[in-house]
Amino acid sequence: MKWLAWLLVPAVLLLLFAILVLVILKKVERFSRSIFGTKSLAEGLKRQELELSKTPKSVSGMTRIYEPQLRKDFPEFNWREFQQKAEQLMMLYFAAISQENENLPAGASEALARQLSIRIRENRRQQITERFEDVVIHNTEIAKYEKKQGTCVLTLQSAVGYIHYKEKNGARIEGDRTLSTQTKYNTELMYVQDARAANLDRAVGATCPSCGAPITGLGNKKCEYCGLEVTPVNIQVWSVQGFYEVDYHNV
Question: 61 and 46, same structural domain?
Fold first, then answer.
């Protein structure tokens, strides 16, 4: 009888374990059906990953608030022109990284050129090939507008989708070559109102073509020193300082 008891106890424990596993599997199946519409959790997670790869991120849309203020400070301000400039330069920036081309067109500041150069050279140092493919900019909005220390800084936020991956020695070490990534990028544009106050010796701000005095009043069309009519400030005075992917470090 003792040997029967020794056999019965493990059998009961095994049966209880099997019942517990079945209960857990049923709960997982119900959870998967309620969340993903399929009984397979793995399939549901794959569907969710695919859906997320197609869904653009929402951006911080403060355009309606800041656009009137920008028009007041800069009567010739054209939001669509700024939006297009930022998006075009961002596309060129991604292409430059993929092609390892350190040259950017006019409108890019020394800061942006340096940011690009550092990234490309660091990839070369590590013998990494970085690629951006099928880049799509879904939407761009004004996120912030600040005036400080002789400068005006305009921050735009864009919802961006692309295929992004890195390879080393022919092997993929980061990203996905088949699945798109949806993310957000901030673009910083700067207008130097007063180069001396901004402590930017090499910066190009708006100056009077007659006497050379700085045009420090936003939206001014007359030089406050000699009275000469001054051409209104346009987009060429603003320069793109950098692109930053929005994450826990840059928001």
Answer: no
